[in-house]
Amino acid sequence: MKTIKFSHFYLKFGDKITNGSEVALVGVQRVFLQNLTKQFLDTDTAYLNKDGTISYYELPKTGEFLHLTFRLMDGMNGWEFSTLRRLTPEKAKYYSVALGETFKVVINEEDK
Description:
The chain is built from two helices and seven strands, in the order ββαββββαβ. The chain has 112 residues and is of the alpha+beta class. The protein has one domain.
């Protein structure tokens, strides 16, 4: 099974996504960061620190990225979240080919 790795527990996960959750990749889209709203970027990058405070993962101001959408099937209800990944030719191919596949969520919150 493929993995999708995160360096923090992001608030967008809510109480649905945990380390080891299995999610399906349901969307892959190329986006330019400069075209995304501040609200979207704040929601996408907000994470919880060990002391309970909120920080934001720092992204560049501009650039082409992949917007990935994942779905967790919870009984009869699907629950979605998205994430941004730097665009490289290798990543574009990897995620495009993996559309519809299941990924295991890996959250690695080591102190940096």
